[in-house]
Amino acid sequence: MVYGALPPEINSGRMYAGPGQDRCWPPPARGMDWPSS
Question: Where are the domains of the chain?
Answer without folding.
Answer: 3-33
